[in-house]
Amino acid sequence: MTDDPSDHSPIEMLRALGEPTRIRIVDEIAAGGPLGVAVLAGRLGLPYMAVWHNLSSLRRARVLAVRRCGQFIEYSFAPGVFTPSADGGELGTLNVGAWRISIGRTAEK
């Protein structure tokens, strides 16, 4: 199996994305680049373990990949899954099999 997103099951990817907390995680990573569990938990106002569980689901579905940075682990999009936007109107596009899902910018709180 390769890291080409076309090799991944779009159904598994969509299933993983079908949970509101996971969409919030994807939004944060799209906006801020690779992030660790503690940073995401703080930004989302959720318990560490809840964020870790959802990151694990996204990783198993091959939406996200992990990279160890010393004693920390950063989560980012798996290769080929996310295409950043060039125009600044949206954050980018998730590539899920034959589907493209646009990720827009959320309003500032």
From TrEMBL:
Keywords: DNA-binding, Transcription, Transcription regulation. Residues 2-97 form the HTH arsR-type domain. GO terms for molecular function: DNA binding; DNA-binding transcription factor activity. The keyword Transcription regulation applies. It comes from the Bacteria. PANTHER family: ARSENICAL RESISTANCE OPERON REPRESSOR ARSR-RELATED (PTHR43132:SF2). This is ArsR family transcriptional regulator.
